[in-house]
Design brief:
By secondary structure, this protein is α+β, with helices and mostly antiparallel strands. It has two domains: 53 residues, no CATH class; 101 residues, no CATH class. 46% of the residues lie in helices and 16% in strands. It contains six helices and seven strands, in the order αβββααααββαββ. The strands form three sheets. It has a three-stranded antiparallel β-sheet with strand order 1-2-3. It has a two-stranded antiparallel ribbon with strand order 4-5. A two-stranded antiparallel ribbon has the order 6-7. The longest helix is centred in the last third of the chain and has 19 residues. The radius of gyration is 24 Å and the shape is extended. The termini are far apart.
Length: 174
C-alpha cells in the first residue's frame, strides 16, 4: 500500500469500512492494524518523544496505579523478582495452547503472589475477557416471575455462576 493510497482512504463511520477511491478495501480495524504494522518505527519514535516529555505524568500515573492496586503490584513485583532470582522458572510456551513466544504470568489470585499461570498474549487476553464476562454475569440480576401478591418481596436474585480455576500454580524451583 503506497502513501498516496493511505492518504486517500476515507472511513465510513456507519458501516465501519475503509474505502480506497470507491472500492471497499477493508474494515477500520484491519486498516489500523496494517497502518500500525507499516509505521512501527514512526509510532515507536513518537511514543519515545512523548514519554520523554511527560515523565512526571507517567511517574504520577504509575504511582497512582500502584497505590490503588497495591496487591496486584506486590504480586507482579514478587513474580518478577522470583523469576530474575531463579526461584520460579518461566516457561517458553503458553500453558493453555502451547504456542512459543512472549509469555505473560497471569495471577488467578493475588493472595498467593507466586502462583501464576503462564499464558501467551492471546490466551491472556481471552482469560481476562472471560473473567470480565463472569464478573458482569455475577453482578447482574435475574428477574423472577413472581405473582402480583408478592410486591413487597425482592424481584431479583444475584446469579451465582462459578467456574473452576484454570491451573493450579506455576512450578516453583527450589
Amino acid at each position: 500500500m503506497t502513501n498516496r493510497q493511505l492518504r486517500v482512504k476515507l472511513a465510513d463511520k456507519e458501516t465501519d469500512t475503509v474505502y480506497i477511491g470507491s472500492r471497499i478495501e477493508m474494515t477500520k480495524k484491519e486498516y489500523m492494524k496494517e497502518w500500525r504494522k507499516e509505521n512501527r518505527g514512526h509510532i515507536r519514535e513518537y511514543l519515545k518523544n512523548w514519554r520523554a516529555g511527560n515523565r512526571a505524568h507517567n511517574s504520577a500515573m504509575n504511582l497512582n496505579w500502584r497505590t490503588a492496586n497495591r496487591e496486584k503490584y506486590l504480586a507482579h513485583h514478587a513474580v518478577n523478582i522470583a523469576v530474575s532470582r531463579g526461584k520460579i522458572e518461566k516457561p517458553d510456551s503458553c500453558e493453555r495452547c502451547g504456542v512459543k513466544g512472549i509469555i505473560h504470568g497471569h495471577h488467578t489470585s493475588y493472595e498467593d503472589r507466586l502462583s501464576v499461570v503462564w499464558l501467551c498474549r492471546d490466551c491472556h487476553n481471552e482469560e481476562h475477557r472471560r473473567l470480565a464476562a463472569q464478573a458482569a454475569t455475577n453482578n447482574s440480576r435475574i428477574e423472577t416471575d413472581l405473582p402480583d401478591s408478592h410486591e413487597g418481596l425482592a424481584t431479583s436474585t444475584p446469579c451465582e455462576r462459578v467456574s473452576p480455576p484454570l491451573h493450579a500454580s506455576a512450578g516453583v524451583v527450589e
